[in-house]
Amino acid sequence: MTRPLATAFLLSLSVMSGALAQNPNPIPKDPSPWKQHAMERPQPVIVTPGAPGAPVPPPSDAVVLFDGTSLAKWQGNPTVPMPARWKVQDGYMEVAPGTGGIATRQGFGDVQLHIEWMTPTPPRGESQERGNSGIFLMSTYEVQVLDSYQNTTYPDGAAGSIYGQFPPLVNASRPPGVWQTYDIVFHRPHFDATGKVTAPARMTIFQNGILVQDDQTVIGPTTNSRRDPYLAHADKLPLTLQDHGNPTRFRDIWLRELPE
Ligand code: MG
């Protein structure tokens, strides 16, 4: 189950704007010869990253979203605001399973995002049930967070994937219980007045300093076992983190808003 809380949010937006009944965007085609979530698709080659380090200090123009002490920049849900109920201790936040995803109070468009994460040790569960969380740019486009160390899953759902669309270029995962980093460059999609996509979203992702997505065009919202068309949305929307039922941890979250 990877449907984000954002689905309801986007639906409410689209109903308000009347776009739902007349979305001009087609259902995207599979971006490869493989069916979505195909297990027989080749697994990403393993590349062992360098040694983990201390949290990367934010630069002077960064918006610091989590400095290890407080969830003040976050809330439980963008449509029905409630406090974020994840655990904060010892400089990290941890998914409190069952409390739901969390969203930034502020919205963002084009960004450079730095975020560090750690999957639980000892590992529990297999495939998508091991250390699953996710980072949803604009509450809509998921960069998968998963324990992909000695844990086989469908390649378009591995760590470093753009969920359900593009596997990582390589498997750059560290073991569970070790901090990992994502550095993400995200360019938002653009829409014309009718809601038609004029420029799709794009992402570049480094996992643990290793390129795993190279200026990849995103073909639509990331969904589980389904292809959804782009649906026009605001220029800025919250960043959300997923509660997938696993106590995955995050720390050192900051971004730079990029000029368009
Ligand atoms: Mg996920």
Describe this structure in words.
By secondary structure, this protein is mostly beta strands. The chain has one domain (4-13, 65-257): Jelly Rolls (Sandwich), CATH 2.60.120. It is 5% helix and 30% strand. The protein is built from 1 helix and 15 strands, in the order αβββββββββββββββ. The chain has one helix at residues 6-17; strands spanning 63-66, 74-75, 87-89, 92-94, 102-108, 111-118, 133-137, 141-145, 180-187, 190-191, 197-199, 202-207, 210-217, 237-241, 249-257. Strands 1, 3, 4, 6, 9, 12, 13 and 15 form an 8-stranded antiparallel beta sheet that branches. Strand 3 (87-89) and strand 4 (92-94) form a beta hairpin. The longest helix has 12 residues, at 6-17. The chain is globular. The model is unreliable at 1-16 (pLDDT under 50). It binds magnesium ion. Residues 2, 132-134, 144-145, 242, 244 line the site of magnesium ion.
Topology, pairings included?
Blueprint: H1 6-17, E1 63-66, E2 74-75, E3 87-89, E4 92-94, E5 102-108, E6 111-118, E7 133-137, E8 141-145, E9 180-187, E10 190-191, E11 197-199, E12 202-207, E13 210-217, E14 237-241, E15 249-257
Antiparallel strand pairs: 1-15, 2-5, 3-4, 4-15, 5-14, 6-9, 6-15, 7-8, 7-14, 9-12, 10-11, 12-13
The protein binds magnesium ion.
Residues 2, 132-134, 144-145, 242, 244 line the site of magnesium ion.
Which properties best describe this structure?
single chain; mainly beta; Jelly Rolls; five-stranded antiparallel sheet; 1 helix; 15 strands; 30% strand; binds magnesium ion
